[in-house]
Amino acid sequence: MKTPVVIVGGGPAGLLLSQRLHLQGIASVVLERQARAHVLARIRAGVLEWGSVQVLRNSDIGERMDREGHIHDGTDIVWSNRHRLTLNTRRHAGRPMMAYGQTNITEDLYAARDALGGQVIDEAQNVALHDIDGASPFVTYAKDGKTHRIDCAFIAGCDGFHGVSRQAIPAAKRREYEKVYPFGWLGILSETPPLPELIYANSERGFALCSMRNPMLSRYYIQCQLETNLDDWPDHRFWAELKARYPREVAEAVVTGPSIEKSIAPLRSFVCEPMAHGRLFLAGDAAHIVPPTGAKGLNLAISDVFYLSRALTAHFKQGNDAYLSSYSDMALRRVWGAARFSWWLTGLLHRFPDQKAFDLRAQEQELSYLSASEAYMKAVCEQYAGLPFEG
Question: Which of 296, 315, 323, 327 is catalytic?
C-alpha cells in the first residue's frame, strides 16, 4: 500500500489529523492497535478551550458538539471550606469554555471518517516505523496473521505515551522531561445531572473536582494515594468523601447515583523534545502528558493537529515546508505553556505529603490574592481559556 501520510494511533489526535487532511484532499491511513470498541470505551477529558471548539467545527465534526455540549463561562475554586472564586474566562479572556466528552469527540470522528471513506485499520499489531531519516519512510504492521507494509511521505505519531512512535526517534536525538506526582485522582462517572459549573476544591482532606460531560452525565474526582484500591471505594464512600471536601451549599447540590465507571489516574508531567525527527512528527500524548488539573491534555492534542495538518497541507499543496520545519518549535511553545500552567494549578489545589503549615498558608494566600487581583485573575484566565494559535 502507498499513501502520503501514515498516522499511527486512532485516538482523537490521529482521527482528527486524518479528517483535516482529507478535507484538504490529502489521503492518509490510520493504524490503531486496539479494537474500535476499546478506543470508544476510554474515559477521558471533557473540557474544551474555545480554540479547540473552532478547530473541531472547521473539521466538519462540530454539529453534535454544538447540540449537546455545555458552554460555560469558567470554573469555580473553593478553599478553606468557605471561600470561593470564579475563573470567568468570558469576562477576563473574552471567550467561554465548552464541556463535551472526549468519548463523544472520538465517536464523532469515527463517524466522519467512515462517512468519507477514510482508511482506519483497527487491531494493527506490531507496528514498526522504518527509514524515518530517509526520503522514503514506510510502516509495517501485522493483521489477520499477515505482515503489511505502507510506503509514505510522512509518518504522524499519535499513538500515546506508551506507543512506538516516540521510541523510533534515536535516544541520542531526544530529550525527555518528567515529573511524577505523589498522588492520583480517584474518579467516577455517573448518569446524574451535574452542577451548573465546574468546581475545584482545595480541602484539608485533599483536592476534589465536580465536572460534567452532558446534562445527564457527571464526572467527579477526589485526590487519593497512588496505592489506593478501587475495591475499598464503594459508591457510598466516594460520595461521602467528595461532599466532605466541599462547603455545605455545594455538597448539598451534588446529585448522587450509581457509578457507571470508576478508575484511578496517576498524575504526571512529561514533555519530549523535539516533536519531529526526519519524516516523523509527534502529536498528542506521544509527545507530552500534563496532569488533568486545568484540562489541557486533549486541547494540546488538538492544537498539535492544527499545526501539523497546516504544515502537511502547505507541503503537499504549495510545496512550502516552512511550517513543517517550524512544527516542533511552534508546538512546544504551546506545550510548555500548558505544562507550566498545569503544574502551577496542580501545586495550588492539591495537598502534598511533605507540605508544612507554612506551605498550606501560602496556598491560601495565593488563592486569596487571585480572588482580589484583577490583573492576576486576567493572566490566569487567559491561560486557562487557552492562548491563541500561532500564525
Answer: 296
**Percentage of the chain modeled with pLDDT above 70:** 100
Give the CATH H-level superfamily of domain 181-266+353-383.
D-Amino Acid Oxidase, subunit A, domain 2 (3.30.9.10)
- Residue 58 CA to residue 54 CA, distance in Å, equals 6
Class of domain 5-70+98-178+268-352: alpha beta
The pLDDT tens digits for 169-219 are 999 999 999 999 999 999 999 999 999 889 999 999 999 999 987 788 899
Number of residues in the chain: 391
Which residues face 147 on adjacent strands?
A: 142
Domain spans of the chain? 5-70+98-178+268-352, 181-266+353-383
Instruction: List, in order, residues 6 or more apart from 77 with CB less than 8 Å away.
Output: 84, 85, 86, 87, 199, 200, 201, 202, 349, 367
**Is 384 an annotated catalytic residue?**
yes
**Which residue among the candidates 110, 141, 181, 200 is catalytic per the annotation?**
200
| Active-site residue, from 12, 194, 291, 292 | 292
Active site residue 22: no
Q: Is 200 a catalytic residue?
A: yes
What is the tens place of the pLDDT at every residue in 39-86? 998 777 789 999 999 999 999 999 999 999 989 898 999 999 889 999
Q: What pLDDT, in 10s, does the model give residues 12-31?
A: 999 999 999 999 999 999 99
For this structure, is 292 an active site residue?
A: yes
